[in-house]
Amino acid sequence: MTHLLRILFISGLALQGCTPPKPVRLGAPIEGYSHTSAAINWFSVNGGGGPNLAPYGYGGGQNCCASLPVKWHP
């Protein structure tokens, strides 16, 4: 019986190494708006951007993705 418990314990430890790491950053949808009379050719937030924006218009829906940290810190 003791031998079986050892095998189960070691197997459990081995399986813990198979879990994927938790993400540090997540993708968040962004949407652009133009509050001016001029078109905006492109925009970006933390490297993720969107399409052209018409004067006084928006980006036609959410665009993927701005990269944000899972846990915010100042």
Structural description of this entry:
With 74 residues, the protein is of the alpha+beta class. It has one domain (22-74). It is built from 1 helix and 4 strands, in the order αββββ. The chain has one helix at residues 2-16, and strands at residues 25-30, 43-45, 48-50, 63-69. It has a two-stranded antiparallel ribbon with strand order 1-4. The chain has a two-stranded antiparallel ribbon with strand order 2-3. Strand 2 and strand 3 (48-50) form a beta hairpin. The relative contact order is 0.23. The mean pLDDT is 76.
User: Could you say how many structural domains there are in total?
Assistant: 1
Assess the beta-strand content as a share of residues.
25-35%
Shape: rod-shaped
Runs in which pLDDT lies below 50 for 5 or more consecutive residues are: none
Number of helices: 1
Which structural class fits the helix and strand makeup? alpha+beta
**Could you give the order of the helices and strands?**
HEEEE
